[in-house]
């Protein structure tokens, strides 16, 4: 079996890492993998030893030429299945290219934002099957008219091994310039509006008087960085909030957090939450999209309604005040990740979809 994977993202964020897990797992099962990605994309370097990487221009939904470039690659390489892993035009033009080449196409859907029923009716004709990374996303598609037999949930996974090593609290605080007695909340997400950074800033402003040692470490990069930094200064939180940027060595440090906060308005599943649970960090997040699947309320973390700042503040307050509860939720979260979110299960789930699609074609 030969699979052409298409990933339009340039950075090695959660979605791209999932693609790398899939490619490596498929290779171990004897599957030949090709990857189409933009020039210089980090995933191209990450999977260079396990897939034939084809770099090409991918300029988004207005780049109709992407269809012809992918069509040429499909005709040259003749894959059995084209698997589209991202949006940014790759979903549309990749589907068009596969249809013109007569090759079955599978789409991975990683976000839960709604689409109009007429859009679903037209666009999703391009795909033989859709894989959602959470049941929440699957339910969104079903509500928009996609037939149940054409969509399957295969949850994202996390390679827990790098997150199982203990983190020395003193080393962690030195690395990020924090006081020795700091109580540390972290957020690991792109700096974009739907991730809810502003809700966390609101909660931080409300909690700082009760917890003078409170610090917030913001991991990630994105278009809102300057705006968020300005807001932190304006609100007098510059001594509390640290912007750490995108860290390739995140597995080394994630376990140093006391709490991971993720107050997103929309989220497919939240790979950073799975990583935090693997690192035995308790989580406060929202009941948005697939987040209730990533975090079991009262087991591995606490859930609040999206945008409810008082509830977010109360949940963080509860954990900050109770070290024993933080430890219990963190340990339960690690056990849950090891039991339910393995890379092997995710790879096997994707492979089963390919086999189903090809069996249907025959």
From TrEMBL:
Pfam families: Glyco_transf_4, Glycos_transf_1. Keywords: Glycosyltransferase, Transferase. It comes from the Bacteria. Residues 14-160 form the Glycosyltransferase subfamily 4-like N-terminal domain. GO terms for molecular function: transferase activity. Residues 172-335 form the Glycosyl transferase family domain. PANTHER family: D-INOSITOL 3-PHOSPHATE GLYCOSYLTRANSFERASE, GLYCOSYLTRANSFERASE. This is Glycosyl transferase. The lineage of its organism: Bacteria, Pseudomonadati, Pseudomonadota, Betaproteobacteria, Burkholderiales.
